[in-house]
Amino acid sequence: MKKIAFSLAIVSLLFISCKKEQNPFQVSKQHIGLLTDSTQVQDLKTVFANDSVVERLLDPEFTYNRTDIDIFDKASNKLLILTPNKVKEPTSTIKTIKILDPRFKTDKGISTHSTFADIEKNYKISSIQNTLKNVVVFVDEINAFFTISKTELPAELQFDTNAKIDAVQIPGKAKIKYFMVGW
Fold first, then answer.
1. Which of 40-49, 52-61, 148-157 has the lowest average pLDDT?
2. Which residues pair with 68 in a beta bridge?
């Protein structure tokens, strides 16, 4: 009986010690570090206990009464910008996360220090959207979109907001400005 209890204790300790700890900078379809698609605004101070959480109510005339929540590390570097589904609602979940810090990486190593070639090599591009100052590259596989400044494009594409931009027109060395994950 003692051998069985001792064996169970050893197996339990091994099981507990083998539990993989979540990487606080890993980006995937359902989570960004410790932040998940079901995390509520009221839980952010717990999730980011070692960081600063700053809520900003944006001008309602231009942003449709949107609230953004900035996450800063202890060195005052802005890591993320979170947009909740509902304004001033503690039980609201997060709708979008803007990733600014290069330590945040997808499972395939893509960060804000990556290039368009890195995205293209690692993910299937779902679509590309042409905006006023940027090109937005959508990757449905991870619910993300990567923003690249139009200054990274050939001159003939930089000022034409109506041009359809294909992946072959974006230089491989074009840098990612930031990327976002939406839930």
1. 52-61
2. 56
26-27 sheet: strands from edge to edge: 35-36, 31-32, 26-27, 105-106
The band of 78, judged by pLDDT with boundaries at 50, 70 and 90, is: very high
Contact status, residue 54 vs residue 73, Cβ threshold 8 Å = no
CATH number for position 63: 2.60.460.10
- Find the domain containing 76 and state its range: 26-182
Q: 180: alpha, beta or left, given left = phi > 0 and alpha = psi -120 to 50?
A: beta
pLDDT tens by residue, 14-34: 444 455 678 899 999 889 999
What pTM, to 2 d.p., does this model score? 0.82
Going by C-alpha positions, the residue among 90, 107, 116, 92 that lies closest to residue 171 is: 116
Q: How many domains does the chain have?
A: 1
> Is residue 21 in a domain?
no
CB 39 within 8 A of CB 71: no
